[in-house]
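mind reviewing this fold:
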Amino acid sequence: MTVRTRFAPSPTGFIHLGNIRSALYPWAFARSQGGTFILRIEDTDLERSSQAAVDVILEGMAWLGLDHDEGPHYQMQRMDRYKEVLRQMQERDLVYPCYMSVAELDALRERQMANKEKPRYDGTWRPEPGKTLPPVPAGVQPVLRFRNPVGGSVAWDDKVKGRIEISNDELDDLVIARPDGTPTYNFCVVVDDIDMRITHVVRGDDHVNNTPRQINIFRALGQEPPVYAHLPTVLNERGEKMSKRNGAKPVTQFRDEGYLADAVVNYLARLGWSHGDAEIFSREQFLQWFSLDHLGKSAAQFDEAKLRWVNAQHMKAMPDSELAPLVEKHLRARGIEPDQRLAQLCGLLKDRCDTTVALADWAARFYLPVKPSDEDLAKHITEGVRPALSMLARMLEGVAWEKAAIAESIKEVLRATGLKMPQLAMPVRVLVLGTAQTPSLDAVLELLPREVVLQRLAKS
């Protein structure tokens, strides 16, 4: 059997990390099994769906490298296919028209709740042998309801939750077509999964209640349902369900804030799956290790501080030549034109940064004028250190502009003045880069033009 998985988001809001995890796992499973990963956009909610939300889905998946083999398929473009299957179901007596109005249905539910019964459709319009149906009301377009099996149960072995079994008597007859003939969600999903030959459905556990209904429709259509894995919810940092309403950011915002795609994939993978104690791993390792058997059973909580730490580890391990183009985008967005120094700057500065935006903040100091704070100037540029700064400037005028020669000049000034390294280095850093904390001073100075260093030291 060739594994075929899918990600089927609804473009009714900007996709966030909790949503995209439901793309990561089926993508990883398909890739790890040599299978096929399909993207399907479930856009039948016309009032709430938007092209902007579709764009964020496509952009976010492309950024994270969650490439799809087929699609994107759009449900609204498949309406003729759904209606064809509805006609076949009508011919096979698998569905029936129901003329119960919304007001009648509401009244029925109120009576049931008053009697402490589960609110559900009572089968008034379901044809049965020997049953007399109510007279058809004039001018009313019916919905189509699916004939759910009576008696017995529907069960499946969930790859996350284990064995789940629901009595068919708990399920009423599902509306699968509205009065205007448009099909409903649970029906469309089944037709799509059949047509796209989906073998494994990996999705959020908010779909668990839909699953028995969908399985019964699969079987009514003569098909076996796929394997299901229902993922526990991702919670935000306050312990609430992650959602746009609760402040979740669109996934593309993490790209804009300077996170690496591989780091986000690494972090997301650990939000509900594990491989021993491995915290930091490459995309290749993830695909090598991934299986549906190690998905977590409890809700995972998003922690942006942990994500930043994971991102920092990936930045440290990333070749400077690959990091530089990402930093360059941020610099160009600020009107800064970087030069050939950028990869070397990334290597020098990345250990103290947790995002490429933070790295761009540091790199910008090498391309823009700096303005030390009055507080730093007062603290570090004292009368006692000014002669040493002047001496260093004179020595740097004539040395070869490379790290070893610059380091020797600094040592010579220390020997001549009796100062300790921090007493000289911190004032130089303040003048040259506007901050008292930088990487090794000789490495910093080497990556600045000599004339810039001398000009800034002269301001002492």
Q: What stands out?
A: The chain has four domains: 1-73+184-317, 81-177, 319-368, 374-457. The chain has 19 helices and twelve strands.
